[in-house]
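Deliverable D2.4 — example input (structure tokens):
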């Protein structure tokens, strides 16, 4: 019994941990394995060794990220990169005061005596040298810590980009449609294998329950199950009655009572079902008898139960079926009656989603089984949401037709969310039916996730507004006390309530937006870190950064970039392909217009942020100095890139040759150009080299390639027969062009041989050498069949017929 009480005493802590960590753990397909977490910076540790260790750890993370065979989740890599950045910043915080102390001691000693001045004592000189050595070493460590922090930030951004690419790839993957026979055939074929996996998990569960039923564990098991049942059925009812009684007695009438009850009812349902699930888990695993996999599976389901109960509690609090006068949203009684059981059904579907996902993970379900379960869940969740929307619409239509009651008007954002939900439901069903099951499942999951966030934001917004209104009301008890104690004017209280409510509403909105984005890879730490940074005013000279203006500027900049991207995609995929412009010209036009549009968007963002040219003149001055000393190369490359895009001396797809570089242009950026070499590697060439150096564009004036070959034959060779054989070989090759037509000529006659020259054209100079080799093999075979030997000794001349020299297509004659 003492053991039972000891474990039950840890219940509040367990509840807090589960509620705090459930949002991130629910989305994890596998348990996050934290490995190689860095220790915090300590003054007792050698900074040089610690920074070297951080550098090695960061290099290991980079290697793991680039390793395609790595199975470590990207979330783990991002967490570890953040830990490296955090420890590097801690070392900066630790070492910077030491640097200041050394500098202060050097300042006290003063500069070294000049030549001819009285010398200082040896002790002072030795102390100065030691301080300078320590300062130099410490300066190197600080710079190394700064570089590590910056590299960690870049690695975090790279991991986020990689994760986004994987996410986009997963969404765009098309599986078999459930309407096809192949879909069910694959599921049937994998059924036997999945059955074995499910039976293994079932056996583990049966063994765990059997172990829990043994005499040492039976009493805790039974007590925990009884406690869970009592908590769900009579316990929740009793808690709600007590809360209602306390609220009616001690809370004044008004909006605060209504919003507070909605919040309390949500938490009551969440904690009752969640704690009941936790008690059931503790009863089964009282003495940690469960298998590790089964224990992980059970804990994941406990967390899922917390969230499923939270969904049900939110819906129940918003509908408030038993207390219509305390209902927050303006809903008709008919609508509430039709949707009475919808929160419980939706919460059960939420729990089913989590259980099946975790079961697939622990059982190692086959790909057809995982696809089939996700298709089922996507149709189930989106179907439930669609059914609820249909019922709401039917009630409104019935009320409008009867004319007895006018349907209650709702806010504009409610209509917008309803329309978005309808589109999402239709899109989810269509995606699943045509085979894009991952995308349909994502849409369905987002319906649940966004709906839960919006409902939570709705309740919390009303609660904080009603709370400030009640606490700071000039006629309320607390408001009268503030007026009498501090002499605050009633108008000031009203203004303070309005301002504080607005600030909290903005904060809740920011948190809600960040939470909505959590399925894309965000985390609570990132969210609150960004929030903290957003409300810090920074001043640079005469330029003051206002968080609100910066936020508006970011919105304008992001929206402008999205519009630019849409227009660029429309140009590159729809308009320009229908013109007579070649691919290189199309790419140059899209790139140049993109740069111009980005500059315009940036200027609009600066205007939105209330940043004038006068306030950034010091930045322009600093840039001018920087350009004079070290940025002239960057500016030169930038201007050269604009010239390349405008004048088109080279374009994407051209074959160019420069000193040390020869290959195809794959991309022209604003600073450098990417050239693919013959060995499939990529050379990054600064744009200024295309302007200042000699450049040979093989495909600029003539995109055709020429194949020219010469064959020496004995003097007694039948010239007409030789000409016929070579001409047939040139014409029969599939790569040679009919126009210009291949030709064969007698090029020279010497005392030992006569030389025949054949010329043919191919579509690209890149194909010339390969086609030449094929034609030579064909000619040798034909000569062997016709018994026409080459001259002895062989004096065949094969010229390089590329764009160089006299044989270039552009050469005169």
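Example output (designed residues):
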């Amino acid at each position: 019994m003492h053991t039972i009480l000891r474990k039950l005493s840890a219940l509040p802590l367990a509840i807090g941990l589960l509620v705090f960590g459930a949002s991130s753990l629910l989305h994890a397909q596998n348990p996050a394995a934290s490995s190689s977490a860095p220790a915090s910076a300590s003054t007792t540790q050698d900074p040089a060794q610690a920074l070297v260790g951080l550098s090695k750890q960061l290099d290991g993370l980079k290697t793991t990220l680039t390793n395609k065979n790595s199975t470590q989740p990207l979330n783990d890599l991002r967490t570890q990169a953040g830990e490296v950045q955090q420890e590097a910043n801690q070392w900066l915080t630790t070492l910077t005061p030491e640097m200041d102390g050394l500098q202060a001691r050097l300042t006290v000693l003063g500069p070294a005596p000049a030549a001819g001045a009285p010398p200082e004592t040896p002790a002072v000189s030795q102390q100065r040298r030691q301080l300078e050595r320590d300062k130099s070493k410490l300066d190197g460590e600080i710079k190394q810590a700064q570089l590590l922090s910056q590299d960690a930030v870049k690695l975090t951004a790279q991991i986020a980009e990689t994760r986004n690419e994987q996410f986009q790839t997963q969404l765009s993957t098309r599986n078999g449609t459930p309407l096809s026979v192949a879909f069910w055939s694959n599921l049937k074929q994998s059924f036997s294998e999945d059955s074995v996996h499910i039976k293994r998990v079932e056996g583990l569960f049966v063994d765990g329950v059997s172990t829990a039923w043994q005499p040492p564990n039976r009493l805790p098991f039974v007590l925990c199950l009884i406690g869970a049942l009592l908590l769900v059925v009579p316990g929740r009812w009793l808690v709600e009655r007590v809360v209602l009684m306390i609220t009616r007695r001690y809370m004044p009438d008004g909006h605060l009572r209504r919003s507070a009850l909605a919040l309390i009812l949500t938490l009551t349902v969440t904690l009752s079902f969640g704690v009941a699930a936790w008690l059931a888990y503790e009863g089964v695993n009282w003495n940690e008898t469960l298998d590790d996999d089964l224990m992980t599976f059970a804990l994941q389901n406990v967390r899922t139960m917390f969230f499923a109960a939270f969904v049900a509690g939110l819906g129940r609090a918003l509908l408030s079926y038993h207390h219509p006068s305390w209902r927050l949203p303006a809903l008709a009684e008919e609508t509430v009656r039709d949707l009475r059981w919808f929160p419980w059904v939706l919460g059960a579907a939420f729990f089913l989603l989590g259980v099946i996902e975790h079961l697939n993970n622990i059982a190692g379900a086959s790909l057809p089984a995982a696809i089939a379960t996700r298709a089922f869940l996507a149709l189930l969740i989106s179907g439930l949401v669609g059914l609820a929307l249909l019922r709401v619409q039917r009630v409104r239509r019935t009320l409008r037709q009867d004319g007895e009651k006018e349907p209650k008007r709702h806010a504009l954002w409610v209509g917008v969310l309803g329309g978005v939900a309808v589109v999402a439901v239709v899109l989810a069903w269509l995606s699943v039916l045509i085979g894009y099951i991952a995308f349909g499942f994502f849409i369905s999951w987002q319906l649940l996730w966004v709906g839960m966030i919006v409902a939570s934001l709705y309740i919390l917004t009303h609660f904080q507004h009603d709370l400030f209104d009640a606490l700071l009301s000039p006629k309320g008890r607390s408001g009268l006390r503030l007026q009498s104690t501090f002499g605050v004017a009633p108008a000031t209280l009203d203004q303070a309530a309005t301002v504080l409510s607005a600030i909290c509403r903005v904060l809740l909105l920011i948190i809600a937006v960040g939470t909505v984005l959590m399925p894309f890879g965000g985390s609570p730490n990132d969210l609150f870190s960004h929030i903290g940074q957003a409300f810090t005013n920074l001043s640079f000279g005469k330029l003051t950064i206002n968080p609100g203006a910066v936020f508006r500027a970011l919105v304008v900049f992001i929206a402008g970039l999205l519009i630019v991207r849409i227009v660029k995609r429309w140009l590159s995929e729809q308009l320009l392909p229908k013109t007579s412009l070649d691919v290189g010209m199309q790419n140059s036009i899209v790139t140049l217009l993109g740069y111009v549009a980005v500059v315009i968007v940036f200027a609009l963002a600066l205007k939105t942020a209330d940043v004038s040219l006068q306030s950034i003149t010091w930045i322009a001055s600093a840039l001018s100095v920087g350009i004079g000393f070290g940025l002239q190369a960057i500016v030169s490359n930038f201007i050269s890139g604009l010239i390349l895009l405008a004048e088109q001396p080279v374009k994407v797809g051209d074959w160019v040759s420069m000193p040390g570089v020869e290959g195809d242009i794959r991309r022209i950026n604003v600073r450098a150009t990417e050239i693919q070499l013959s060995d499939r590697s990529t050379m990054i060439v600064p744009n200024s080299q295309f302007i200042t150096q000699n450049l040979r564009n093989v495909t600029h004036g003539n995109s055709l390639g020429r194949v020219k070959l010469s064959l020496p034959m004995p003097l007694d060779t039948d010239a007409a027969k030789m000409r016929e054989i070579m001409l047939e070989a040139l014409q029969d090759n599939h790569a040679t062009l009919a126009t210009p037509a291949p030709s064969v000529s007698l090029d020279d006659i010497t005392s030992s041989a006569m030389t025949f020259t054949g010329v043919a054209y191919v579509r690209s100079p890149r194909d010339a050498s390969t086609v030449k080799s094929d034609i030579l093999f064909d000619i040798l075979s034909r000569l062997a069949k016709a018994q026409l030997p080459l001259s002895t000794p062989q004096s065949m001349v094969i010229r390089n017929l590329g764009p160089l020299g006299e044989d270039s297509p552009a050469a005169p004659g």
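The longest strand covers residues 705-713.
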